[in-house]
Amino acid sequence: MRSLVVIGGGPRAAGLLERIAAQSPSLELAVHVVDPYPPGAGRVWRHAQSPLLRMNSMAEDVTVFTDSSFDGIGPVRPGPSLAEWGDVDPASFPSRQVQSKYLAWFFDHVTESLPPNISVTVHCARASKVVGNWVRLDSGESLQADVLVLALGHLDAEPEPEHRKLSEHAVEHDLVYVPPLYSADADLSEVSGDVVLRGFGLAFIDLMVLLTEGRGGRYERSGGELRYLPSGSEPRLFVGSRRGVPYHSKTGYRLQGTRPSLPYFFTADALKGRSSDFRADVWPLMAKEIAWGHYHELFTGHPGLVRMPFVEFATSFAALPWYSEEMRSLEVLAIPDPADRIDFEQLDRPLTGLTFATAEEFQEHLRSYVEADVARRSDPRYSADLGAFLALLSVYGQMAQVMPHDGWWHGYFSYLASGPPPDRLEELLALSRAGVVRFVGADMWVEAVDGAFLAGSPTTPDVVRANGLIEARLPVHSLSRTADPVLRSLRAVGDVSEDDAGLVRVSAEGRLINERGEEDPARFAVGPYTTGKAFAAFARPNTNAPAFRQNDVLAREILRTLGD
Q1: What are phi and psi of 494, to 5 degrees?
Q2: How many Cβ atoms from other residues are within 10 Å of residue 404's Cβ?
């Protein structure tokens, strides 16, 4: 009997097993899944976290099953989306506990559907070391692997020098410092008083919830406005970041026009021969693709807002480079309202050039900004934003073909497309009006001096003095600083290598590449810590999701290696 060991039992491992089962292999195979957390959900999606924490995806936009859009070699094996499985409102944003149950059910469904020649054993333990073809577990057990797959998910990293210094400062002066980590893992029990949060994305939203509603506060609606009623146990939260604004709200409407065929410009053929200079040579084509999705919806869904037929606009648009005076002239000619034109620079840095005489003036400005964002993302009149969002997803699905990976792009994508549900931003506004949350500004700086944490921004002259600092962001993983014991053991003997961004190098099929540039014959890796990183977001139905295609290729390669 052949042996397959999969280290990591989260959604990626479950999806890989589903694709192995879909191939109907005939060999006798023993599969061992190693994870200290429950299989299917894994660490990030485990049920044992606050019921207040929610997904930032609608229930109808989450599936673990292939459908008719899938163009991989393996067969389609359809199944229910999260909305269909959980019988929940398709447009709702379910709790992570609901998603955890869906993922656990999927893992059980996959293992139960395997043919009798394949067995699955789950080991509730942590893999501590890989030596040759043996995997050692912290339970004392050892597993022999004919093929090894590292499906490790999101990983922790050793602290960066700055974080170590901040932690030492906190210990020396009896302050609170929380380094970058997953919000559900954070010990927030000592957080009180005035606290700076560095980061304004989804990690901030989670921390905001845990430190307010999670401390006993509650919301009520009065006269159409949401109000926050403090419990008295909340800290005061001072939040800032590079942009100084929260991620954009998720849209709450459907397309009003015809659905575009995506990707239209950012295709595999168009990417051939382009240089690795991301901002100069790749980003302009991506920007044109996203703008295409935006304008396709504007012209087909809202013809009263434009000055020419879509066919005429599309012909000129297709012929012009995105960053050209002719393109700008076309936009002005065809689209009278500047609010309907897409401006990537303004979207990226909305506070650029803005300063305020007092912090209070800035609080009012940013509340107005967030209110306008929620209103726009809730009004079908601006459904062109949804067209841009769908184009963003199609671009992201092509990113595996663009090397090297670009950190700015991933952050920009998350900021535009992976923001919180609109009601979370309404809660942020309520917390701001209640004085529980204070906005610091753009390009926020933080210093550890005078027995405190100081924070400020060029946006206002005010300086915050706080007794706590929370890094409201995920750790940046790199192989050289990995906290994962398996990767450490492989790195110690040169069996793994990293690219310039610190990602674990893998081949197109997912095989580990060692320090000599050789592909490993029997070890694979998949996930966001690899150069084949794809696709942390869950698959949306009917989008030929990249993760499904990647799992399909990996499953075939594993079975080929095992000799089936």
Answers
A1: 80, 20
A2: 12
pLDDT tens digits for range 28-80: 999 999 999 999 999 999 999 999 999 999 999 999 999 999 999 999 999 99
In a 13 Å sphere around the CA of 115, the CA atoms on its Cβ side amount to 12
- Say whether pTM exceeds 0.70: yes
- 239 lies in the same domain as 371: no
Instruction: Write the CATH number for 47.
Output: 3.50.50.60
Any domain includes 32: yes
Residue 380 to residue 382: CA distance in whole angstroms:
5
Task: Report how far residue 394's alpha carbon sits from residue 296's, in angstroms, rounded to the nearest whole number.
Answer: 14
Bridge-based pairing state of the strands 194-198 and 236-240: parallel
For 237-269, the pLDDT digits (tens) are 999 999 999 999 999 899 999 999 889 999 878
Query: Which single residue is written with the structure tokens 């998603």?
Result: 99
Kind plus residue range of the DSSP H or E element containing 362: helix 359-378
Whether 383 and 254 have beta carbons less than 8 Å apart is answered as yes
For the chain, what is the domain count? 3
Kindly report the backbone phi and psi dihedral angles of residue 221, in degrees, each rounded to the nearest multiple of 5, phi listed first. -100, 130
- Based on its alpha-carbon atoms, the radius of gyration of the chain, rounded to whole angstroms, reads 24
Angle at which helices 546-562 and 11-22 cross, to 10°: 60
Residue 157 near residue 501 (C-beta atoms within 8 A): no
Range of the domain at 336: 268-417
